[in-house]
């Protein structure tokens, strides 16, 4: 894979350049991620915050997580696409909500673990051999 990888939100107002592979890629089955993705899970790439660059204006949103931490997010005010989540107390990494459409090799964003499977929809089958966690890792 050649870096940087470039991408954008749905309307193109927010763009990014990712300079190295994610630290990990997770499929999250919590009910909040089901709402976000309008599907059985969302795919999140955890990346070093200093290895990605964003352009364009983003809006903010936040909520309290089950742990009591703040779960903050940035999203495009034009199309509403969620761009990334972050913990304001841990800014070295961000949880990117990349859309792998258009990448020459989307395998970079294939989940290596499924989390919050305690809230997984019963009809979705996790592929064999993938790590599984009942809650957060």
Automatic annotation (TrEMBL):
UniProt domain CENP-V/GFA: residue ranges: 5-110
Keyword Transferase included in the entry's annotation: no
Keyword list, A-Z: Lyase, Metal-binding, Zinc
Pfam families: GFA
Gene Ontology MF terms: carbon-sulfur lyase activity; metal ion binding
InterPro entries referenced in this protein's UniProt entry, alphabetically: CENP-V/GFA, Mss4-like_sf
Cross-referenced SUPFAM superfamilies: Mss4-like
Family membership noted in the UniProt record: Belongs to the Gfa family.
Protein name: GFA family protein
């Amino acid at each position: 894979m050649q870096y940087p990888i470039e991408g954008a939100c749905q309307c193109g107002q927010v763009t990014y350049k990712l300079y190295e592979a994610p630290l990990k890629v997770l499929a999250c089955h919590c009910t909040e991620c089901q709402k976000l993705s309008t599907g059985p899970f969302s795919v999140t790439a955890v990346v070093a915050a200093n290895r990605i660059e964003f352009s364009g204006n983003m809006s903010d949103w936040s909520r309290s997580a089950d742990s009591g931490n703040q779960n903050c997010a940035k999203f495009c005010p034009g199309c509403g696409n969620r761009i990334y989540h972050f913990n304001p107390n841990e800014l070295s990494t961000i949880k990117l909500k990349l859309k792998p459409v258009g990448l020459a090799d989307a395998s970079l964003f294939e989940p290596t673990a499924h989390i919050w499977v305690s809230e997984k929809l019963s009809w979705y089958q996790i592929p064999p051999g993938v790590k599984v966690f009942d809650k957060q890792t």
